[in-house]
Amino acid sequence: MLRRIKPANEFAAGWRFAPGVRLRGQKRDLSCLRAGGDSASSPGAANSFAGSYPAGTCLTIGDLSVTFAFDGDAASVAAWDEVHRPFITTSPAGTGGCLAARLRVRPGVAAPASHPELLADGRLWMLRRDPATGARRLAVHGCPVGDLAMTLDLDPPGDGPLTGDLFLGPPPAGQARVPLGYPLTPLLWTLLLGRLGPGDAGLLCHACGVVTPTGEGLLFTGFSGAGKSTTSRLWRAACPDAAVLSDDRVVLRRDPSSPTGFTIHGTPWHGDAEEVSTGWAPLRRLLLLGRSPDGVTSRLVPLAPAAAAAQLLARTTPPIWDAAGTVAALGLAAAVCQSRPVARWDFAPGPQAVHDLLTE
Fold it and tell me: pTM for the whole thing?
């Protein structure tokens, strides 16, 4: 069971927030980057890591760190895109996170699996078990299927980090591969969050995360089209001193050292508003996104904890292939909805909606 390394008095000095990144321009396929650079803010920076990855290159999201070791020619064809670069460090020790997994990055494609299939989600991931040892292995494919593949051993000795292999197929001419493109990264973090103990459990939520000017975290959860990106734009326009952690995916963590018992964390996985941040804040309130009945007046509709927990879970990605991880997700959803204010926010797009929440 993983444990996070975090100073107990970290919140005493106030919340911590790193400036976010707002991406501009048309959407693009971030599984490949042009060798000449593909960053709206720093031309040429997209390939700044290519060919010079240290063995301990580390990606930290939601206080969980994954390290990468590059084999052979893998480093020469790899580059981090602009949404992941703020989350890259050279060591998990410098981020406050715990080491959750070690990945070896290899050129080429994964060999066909031979063990019996236990569970699968279409063509995205497959769970298999070694008949001889009983050990489970998860295989994940990228988009398009076969371009990228990751295999993870889910039963490491003891309670140590997961280990696995990440395969980088040959990139198109003049381009580089992002080591963890969509959907590999969010699926990996879903798995890692599911391995945490009850004391610091975590969930990846379909949500917009906002930090108020006083440092309090608001989590707005919703399905696709519910208004997560609209909510982030409202806060940007109506409250410039607020910060947006993400407009699509936010990590929710139980944290005994937080003044509220829970924290929310930014991720690289953005929506239409293209908000990305490495920041985090104590969770003050959970809000399920709804629409104003008259399109003019916003309202808060209180929810019973059990109903709220069920609706929250429907807006998360629990590790359904792992029984213990699913139980931990259920426990976290129940705990946060019992201890934090929860309501459905039927909002009318406009600055008044933000003002009402800040003064409520």
Answer: 0.84
